[in-house]
Each structure stands twice: as C-alpha cells, then as structure tokens.
C-alpha cells in the first residue's frame, strides 16, 4: 500500500522564511512541499491549483493580514493550518486569536539564532504539520467569526474574592494541541467560587502570559500566569509559564505554586505529568483532574497516579478533541474514570471535587 505524502503549502511574506520552512519540511519523510506563496492573494490561487493538505501561515503579512485570510479560509474551505508566529506580545495575541478561528497549532518564526536549535525547531515543525494533517477541521462558526467575540477584549464581570480565603480542594488541568480553546471552554463553565485551578498547557514563553490575560478577560475567573509562591485560591486559575514546570506544594493549610526549570519531561516544560504528580503528592484525594486534547503522551502517567489514589479523573473524548493523543494514551493506560465531550468536563470536575469533599 502506497502512502501519499502530506502536501504542504508555505505562506509567508519573507523569502528567507519560505526557504527555511520549505527545506525543513521537504527533507522530512512523508512530507512534500507543493508550493509557496508570498501573500494571501497568491495563496488563494495556489490552494485552488495545488489542493494542499496543510497550510503554514504567517500571522502578519502585507495586503491581507493572516487573521483575515484565515477567517475567510475557515468559512469557505476549512483545512488544517499551522500558524508561524513571532515571539512578541503582538504575535502572541494574534496567534491565540488564530487558534480561536480554527488554526490547529503554531510554531515560532525562524530567526537568525535558529542555527543553534535547528534540529529541535525542525522536529517541532514537522511533528505539528504531521499532526495537523490528521485533524478534521470544522467550518468556522458564526460566533467565532464575529468581530464581537470576546477575543476583541470584552470583559466579563467578576465577583471580588477575598485574598484571605484558601481552598482544601483543587482542580488540575493538562492540555497541548487544541488546548487553548478547550481550556477556555472549561473555564467559561466554572462558577466564580470554583476550587482553585492549576493548568499546564504546552505553550512557549510569552504566549502563556498572553493566554492567561486572554482567559482573565473572557471568563468569570481570575486567571493569571502562575508565579513562585502564589496561593491557590477559589475562583482563581493559574497557568504554567511557558518555560517552567508548575508544581503545587502544601504550605500548612494552603496550596501554593512552585516553579521549576528542571529538565523537560516528555519533551515538555511545562509538563502535565510534573503538575499532576505534584498535585497527587500535595493534595491527594482533595483533587480532581482532567486531561484534554493534545498530541503525545504527556499527562497520561500522572493522571494514572492520581486515579490510583482515588482521585476522580477525566479525559476529553476523541470526537471533541483536536488531537486525541494525550487523552487517548490515558485511556489506554486505564487512567480515566470518565471520558467526556469538552462541554461536559467542567460539570464533571465540579461534581468530582464535591464528591471528594463529602468523603
């Protein structure tokens, strides 16, 4: 049986970036770069002509910006897209919006220092393109396409929560590819007095802060990028910084956040396994945990350790996941008490923490 190569179209206004991406992808087994385009207008014609399986798309380009092109593409011809983003505050915000519009994932834009990490960069790019090729992209919904979405910065009123309160229960969430939108859906469904939430999402430095600020604007919780020594309080969610492991430690009657620059685990820092194991050690059965969409296996073993302690563990189901790698691996390891669509995860987490407290 002959396996057809993944056909990729590279769209970027920089000739150097087009060359670098094309060379990396062209050397990868099973991937064929069928063409390049310097702007969305050329890309539109190349898509019609070449029928690629995956698009890499620069977030900011002349003549038509990447978001406008992506929005039109997801309405008229949905296809897997991997965004190529600069590591800037503006780049992070635009990229997170692109994920809301339906982009599968993103990589940083290659720069002059790439030579020092070309192998890691290339592996990351190739992995994400291969993963994107297997994703069934859904058409852009009217709500996501609307300029009145919360992405525009609309704030949701929050209840003032006393800083003197603590929590004897805790919710832990892990995710990777597709996780920013899955996490948002969970946080939107949690009440403002929910137990403290700790989150490990595979995300680069800089993007984690932008993601936390975005969730703080769009949900009813107080959401922040975790800092060393933060107290885990009800109504608050703490997102692991992009290049730090997030751990939860017990400090008397309180849980606090601890950050670590330890070695990557499962190729990731932050690692979901590191977070889940710290929650197992510090909170035990006072916790409830969910493993959401993502490629790889990070978090599966940590979730299994939590379940072994009697913790209520949840994984996102395959149908609602962008990539069923991490949650699927957790299911294979018998780490999940429940397998649920993303719309039911928040309710199950609340139920799980209530049951643990009653015990």
Automatic annotation (TrEMBL):
Subcellular location: Cytoplasm
PTM description: Phosphorylated by CheA. Phosphorylation of the N-terminal regulatory domain activates the methylesterase activity.
Domain notes per entry: Contains a C-terminal catalytic domain, and an N-terminal region which modulates catalytic activity.
Gene3D superfamilies: 3.40.50.2300, Methylesterase CheB, C-terminal domain (3.40.50.180)
A GO biological process held by the record: chemotaxis
Family: Belongs to the CheB family.
Endpoints of the signal sequence: none
Uppermost EC category: hydrolase
Record-linked InterPro entries: CheB-like (IPR008248), CheB_C (IPR035909), CheY-like_superfamily (IPR011006), Sig_transdc_resp-reg_Me-estase (IPR000673), Sig_transdc_resp-reg_receiver (IPR001789)
Biological role: Involved in chemotaxis. Part of a chemotaxis signal transduction system that modulates chemotaxis in response to various stimuli. Catalyzes the demethylation of specific methylglutamate residues introduced into the chemoreceptors (methyl-accepting chemotaxis proteins or MCP) by CheR. Also mediates the irreversible deamidation of specific glutamine residues to glutamic acid.
A GO CC term assigned to this protein in UniProt: cytoplasm
Major localization class: cytoplasm
GO molecular function, one term: protein-glutamine glutaminase activity
CDD domains: CheB_Rec, REC_CheB-like
Residue positions of the active site: 176, 202, 298
Matching SUPFAM superfamilies: CheY-like, Methylesterase CheB, C-terminal domain
Classification via PROSITE patterns: CHEB, RESPONSE_REGULATORY
Reactions that this protein is recorded to catalyse: [protein]-L-glutamate 5-O-methyl ester + H2O = L-glutamyl-[protein] + methanol + H(+); L-glutaminyl-[protein] + H2O = L-glutamyl-[protein] + NH4(+)
A Pfam family that the UniProt record links to this protein: Response_reg
EC numbers on record: 3.1.1.61, 3.5.1.44
Every Response regulatory domain range: 7-124
Taxon lineage: Bacteria, Pseudomonadati, Pseudomonadota, Gammaproteobacteria, Chromatiales
Domain of life, source organism: Bacteria
Domain CheB-type methylesterase, chain residue ranges per copy: 164-356
This protein's UniProt keywords: Chemotaxis, Cytoplasm, Hydrolase, Phosphoprotein
Protein's name according to its UniProt entry: Protein-glutamate methylesterase/protein-glutamine glutaminase
């Amino acid at each position: 049986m002959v396996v057809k190569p993944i056909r990729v179209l590279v769209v970027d206004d920089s000739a150097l970036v087009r060359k670098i991406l094309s060379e990396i992808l062209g050397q990868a087994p099973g991937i064929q770069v069928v063409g390049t385009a310097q702007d969305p207008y050329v890309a539109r014609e190349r898509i019609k002509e070449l029928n690629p399986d995956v698009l890499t798309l620069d977030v900011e380009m002349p003549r038509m910006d990447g978001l406008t092109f992506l929005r039109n593409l997801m309405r008229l011809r949905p296809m897997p897209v991997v965004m190529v983003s600069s590591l800037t505050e503006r780049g992070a915000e635009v990229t997170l919006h692109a994920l809301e519009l339906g982009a599968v994932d993103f990589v940083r834009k290659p720069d002059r220092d790439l030579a020092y990490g070309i192998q890691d960069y290339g592996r990351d790019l190739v992995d994400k393109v291969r993963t994107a090729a297997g994703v069934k992209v859904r058409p852009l919904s009217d709500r996501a396409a609307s300029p009145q979405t919360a992405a525009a910065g609309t704030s949701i009123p929050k209840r003032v929560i006393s800083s003197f309160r603590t929590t004897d229960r805790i919710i832990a969430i892990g995710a990777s590819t597709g996780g920013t939108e899955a996490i948002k859906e969970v946080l939107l469904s949690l009440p403002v007095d929910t137990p403290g939430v700790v989150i490990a999402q595979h995300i680069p430095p800089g993007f984690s802060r932008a993601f936390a600020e975005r969730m703080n604007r769009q949900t009813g919780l107080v959401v922040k990028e975790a800092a060393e020594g933060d107290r885990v309080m009800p109504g608050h969610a703490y997102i692991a910084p992009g290049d730090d492991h997030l751990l939860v430690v017990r400090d008397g009657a309180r849980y606090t956040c601890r950050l670590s620059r330890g070695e990557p685990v499962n190729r990731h820092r932050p690692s979901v396994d590191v977070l889940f194991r710290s929650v197992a050690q510090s909170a035990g059965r006072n916790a409830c945990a969910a493993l959401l969409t993502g490629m790889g296996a990070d978090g599966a073993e940590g979730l299994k350790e939590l379940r072994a302690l009697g913790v209520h563990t949840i994984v996102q189901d395959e149908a609602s996941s962008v990539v069923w790698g991490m949650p699927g691996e957790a299911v294979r390891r018998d780490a999940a008490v429940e397998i649920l669509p993303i719309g039911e995860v928040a309710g199950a987490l609340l139920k799980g923490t209530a049951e643990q407290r009653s015990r």
